[in-house]
Design goal:
heterotrimer; A mainly alpha; B mainly alpha; C alpha/beta; A: mainly alpha; 11 helices; 2 strands; B: two-stranded antiparallel sheet
Chain lengths: 290, 277, 388
């Protein structure tokens, strides 16, 4: 049973990681928190739901559409809630993103209704027995998609020109600007990528747990913050690791203690982490790769 | 409505105290929960008279604030935000599992105490405290730390003590808001004091302006009354509330009320009083 | 001679007025009969509140087209609690103290009801819940009424049917410890009923309302391999638990109660939930003519959604309210408000065999709805009634 529970934890963790990577990328380049990131996730889940329902459960199409839509949404949020505030007090974007988050929640509530909705069960469910372990096709798909996306982000940051620009901006926006990096474009790019990842996470959660409703972003956003912190602010591999750690912790907590302590693990870990190791699990920063 | 406004005002001021010393807390919901549960336990289970219960509840919240404030001294900026957020959530999980106060099912049985005059008096008292603090030695120390911690230390301000004091007072005031709230609705449950509750005073203060305590007052008033004013929009009400918040911040990133506006108001008196933009 | 005619007329008048509801009631004073409603139109109980709102508006429309209550139109001020307790209380207070309503319909959720009920002795106005099912909480005040079956009554026949149909000898319980009625079911109602039926409870697991991942609980249940799984859960999470179980290869039958009794549950689980048994308090596809007529009108207003039993009972509640006001001595004069509120309270204790869309309604001595439980199962994404 323990092994099976670990698989459950990894599944949950993979989703947390995708959200946290977005947070950490944005924090890395701006040094600011994006408190509507959870709502971006929610919008992704709904777009995925609509596309999957309309096109007879085409998962890949749903994923692609959701990522594109949330990527664009990310650009809009950057334009509206961050750019006008550059140079203002560092708390100001917290308020604008909370405002944007409320507006997104309410728009979704108005358009889709407040009820929870589930994805059509489309990926034909196959179960594979691996010794004591049982893995379903849905799980394999979600894990594969999450890993693939994380790998893509890693390659993007480490190997591409644009990725180098992102890292340079994270290191020092002024210097990067002087060296010819178009900082505004880099920030927009980061918002696009980060938001698309959150959108993908939304679709995956929809498929894995069938829970899509307008207020799901609040909880996921908070979990994403926790994971970002566990991984170290601005640290992409750290966010991946942090996601897995939190997912496994939560599942084991529910399995061996009680569900009412679920969040205690997440936030207890945060408190400890801040006191003992504020630089995060890996203790690395975005720019010092690997 | 006005009772809620009063409680929100006190809650906003509870965040103003630590913020005036440069410390943002996203865990006021946790302190509010402690105050609410402590006061309710005292009146409902032990039958204490409410003034005593309220006072002790605020003291307990303040004491917890001091305890949290100590480790929080080590972290700042975004780390402090996340740490206080985690604290608030841990308090919520604690009450979620704490059987003597009903755990997840909530707690009831407290008398109806929170009348409008009481709330108004306590809100005015808190505002007065904030005003007096701002002009006092301690208040100037807070402001100095807020501007530049290192410089403050150099000119001989006991930064540790001042920060701890600001945090403790803020926690006690949030505890008082919790006690008032609990004796208004006469029922409390852990989920009421979650992340959303902690975000509330934060938006009040940031939208109102973090320069002076007038900002906290203005922010709490505007953001509590706005959803009521927008009632005619029916289902679009809250969406517009969110957009309004966004718009205010874009137009006035420093918040509605800042030093400049206050100075302008003072200069223009007694002739005209300018509305906040 | 003259006297004989007179006595016939008097006798006829007496007979007519004795047939409750058929006699034209005394004309009420005032411009309108004002009622309040506190429904959970947003938040976790959104669907319950939305259906209650639609059904209430339907009933109000019908009544007003037919001449109102006691000759004056009825007006229901519907407020949204957000499925949270604090707003439920402050809204009830506002309706009673400021809007001066005669009585309040709702709230649906037991958490809201349980918190509000103890305050009613002071507010002296009744509340009538359409779906709160946690046993025992109407006892908190003589002003607290519920026109629905408590979950022990909903589940009792369901447990027997479940046991017989699927040969259940052992079970695991999964319940929401943060939701009032689900927690009562999971920690008290189900253990007692299962024990009485001789079913062994192998494990009792909890989750929290906001959880979306139930994999840990299902994996644990799987390792114990019980014959069936009993849920204390609202329909959203219940559906997700069922689907998660199927994902992990569990084929067991599910049993569920009050908060699962929404047609949305059947829609969400689809084929995965076809061997489940739900103890409930209303079936939207009931072939009674009254219910059929209501269903048609409801679906026109709801965009094709079928009502949950909270919606169905809200509709009945407005009509019962009409009967109580017209026959209970209410004058609707502003000066009589306190007396009128008490008349309404007394009237509700006398409701017996009221013929509504959920069948015959009787309010019992505990001020809860009596009658038979409706046991449902899922077929083709719809609720189907199991006769017993």
């Amino acid at each position: 049973m323990l092994v099976q529970q670990l698989v459950n934890g990894v599944m949950l963790g993979a989703v947390y990681a995708l959200i946290a990577i977005g947070y950490t990328l944005i924090f890395g380049v701006l040094g600011m928190l994006h408190l509507a990131h959870g709502e971006v996730f929610m919008v992704g889940a709904f777009v995925g739901l609509v596309v999957a329902t309309k096109y007879s459960g085409n998962v890949m199409l749903a994923l692609g559409a959701a990522m594109l839509a949330t990527g664009v949404l990310g650009l809009i949020i950057e334009r509206v809630a961050f750019r006008p505030l550059r140079g203002a007090h560092h708390l100001a974007p917290l308020a604008t993103t909370i405002g944007a988050g409320i507006a997104l929640q309410e728009t979704a509530r108005w358009y889709f209704g407040p009820e929870q909705q589930g994805f059509p069960s489309t990926i034909a469910l196959t179960l594979w027995e691996l010794g004591p372990l049982r893995v379903s096709s849905v799980q394999v798909f979600i894990l594969a998609a999450a890993l693939l996306l994380m790998g893509a982000v890693h390659v993007f940051l480490a190997r591409t020109r644009a990725g180098r620009a992102v890292r340079a901006t994270a290191e020092d926006p002024t210097v990067a600007g002087l060296l010819g990096v178009n900082v505004g474009a880099v920030i927009a790019l980061v918002f696009f990528v980060a938001s698309a990842l959150a959108g993908a996470a939304g679709v995956l959660v929809g498929f894995a747990y069938n829970s899509v409703h307008p207020f799901i972003g609040v909880q996921m956003g908070v979990k994403g913050l926790v994971v970002m912190l566990l991984g170290g602010l601005g640290n992409v591999p750290g966010a991946m690791l942090g996601g897995l750690v939190l997912g496994v912790l939560e599942v084991l907590g529910v399995a061996y203690f009680a569900s009412s302590y679920r969040d205690a693990f997440a936030f207890g870990a945060v408190m400890l982490m801040l006191l003992l190791r504020p630089e995060g699990l890996l203790g690395l920063r975005l720019q010092r790769r690997d | 409505m006005l009772i809620q406004l009063g409680i929100n005002l006190i809650l906003a001021l509870s965040l103003y105290f630590p913020l005036s010393a440069g410390q943002l807390s996203l865990g006021q919901g946790g302190f509010m929960a402690i105050g609410a549960y402590a006061a309710s336990w005292l009146t409902a289970a032990l039958g204490w008279p409410w003034p005593l219960a309220f006072a002790l509840a605020a003291l307990i919240a303040g004491a917890v604030g001091a305890l949290v404030g100590l480790p929080a001294l080590r972290v700042r900026g975004i780390y402090l935000i996340l740490m206080t957020m985690a604290f608030g959530e841990i308090v919520r999980v604690f009450f979620l599992n704490f059987a003597p106060t009903g755990a997840a099912q909530g707690f009831r049985g407290m008398p109806f105490v929170t009348t409008l005059p009481l709330v108004a008096a306590l809100a005015a008292g808190t505002a007065l405290l904030a005003a007096r603090t701002a002009g006092s030695r301690m208040g100037r120390a807070f402001a100095a730390i807020n501007r530049d911690e290192l410089a403050a230390e150099v000119i001989g301000i006991d930064v540790t003590r001042a920060k701890l004091a600001s945090f403790t007072v803020g926690a006690a005031v949030a505890g008082l808001a919790g006690a008032l709230w609990a004796h208004y609705v006469q029922f409390i449950e852990p989920e009421e004091f979650g992340f959303a509750r902690s975000v509330m005073p934060f938006t009040f203060v940031v939208v109102g302006g973090i320069d002076t305590f007038w900002g906290a007052v203005a922010g709490a008033a505007l953001l509590t009354l706005l959803p009521e004013w927008l009632r005619f929009l029916k289902e679009w009400r809250l969406a517009l509330y969110g957009l309004a918040m966004l718009a205010v911040m874009i137009v006035r990133p420093q918040g509605l009320i800042d030093h400049r506006l206050l100075r302008a108001v003072r200069r223009w008196r007694p002739g005209h009083t300018r509305e906040a933009a | 001679m003259r006297y004989r005619w007179l006595s016939v007329i008097v006798a006829a008048a007496l007979v007519t007025s004795a047939l409750a509801g058929t006699a034209p009631a005394a004309k009420l004073a005032g411009k309108s009969v004002k009622l309040g409603a506190i429904y959970s139109i947003t938040g976790k109980g959104a669907e319950w509140g939305e259906h209650s709102k639609i059904a209430t508006e339907l009933a109000v429309d019908e009544i007003n087209k037919a001449g109102g209550i006691g000759g004056v139109p009825v007006e229901v001020l519907i407020q949204d609690t957000g499925t949270e307790v604090a707003p439920a209380i402050s809204l009830a207070r506002k309706l009673i103290l400021e809007d001066k309503v005669l009585a309040i319909l709702g709230p649906c959720f037991s958490s809201e009801f349980e918190a509000l009920a103890p305050l009613l002795d002071r507010l002296k106005t009744i509340i009538v819940s359409q779906c709160s099912a946690k046993p025992g909480i109407s006892a908190l005040s003589q002003w607290a009424f519920r026109n629905t079956l408590t979950s022990d009554k909903q589940l009792a026949p369901a447990v027997e049917i479940w046991q017989k149909r699927y040969g259940i000898k052992s079970a695991a319980i999964i319940y929401d410890s943060a939701d009032a009625v689900s927690a009562a079911e999971g920690s008290a109602v189900l253990p007692a009923l299962l024990k009485k039926a001789g079913i062994e409870v192998k494990e009792s697991l909890t989750y929290q309302t906001k959880d979306i991942d139930f994999s840990a609980q299902i994996t644990k249940v799987k390792s114990l391999n019980p014959d069936g799984i009993a849920l204390g859960s609202c329909y959203q999470q219940a559906a997700n638990i069922v689907r998660e179980a199927r994902k992990q290869g569990l084929k067991q039958s599910f049993l569920a109660g009050a908060c699962t009794g929404s047609p949305e549950f059947a829609k969400l689980v689809g084929k995965d939930g076809e061997n489940s048994v739900i103890g409930s308090a209303g079936w939207p596809d009931d072939p009674r003519p009254k219910t059929v007529a209501f269903l048609k009108k409801f679906m026109e207003k709801s965009g094709g959604k079928k009502p949950n039993y909270g919606g169905m009972r809200s509709y009945d509640n407005v009509y019962i309210m009409k009967w109580v006001i017209e026959t209970g001595g209410v004058t609707n004069e502003a000066k009589d408000l306190d007396a009128d509120r008490d008349h309404v309270r007394v009237g509700w204790t006398k409701v017996k065999d009221f013929d509504g869309i959920t069948g015959l309604t009787t309010i019992n001595a505990e001020r809860d709805g009596g009658g038979r439980s409706t046991v449902l199962t899922v077929k083709d994404g719809q609720f189907v009634k199991i006769d017993y």
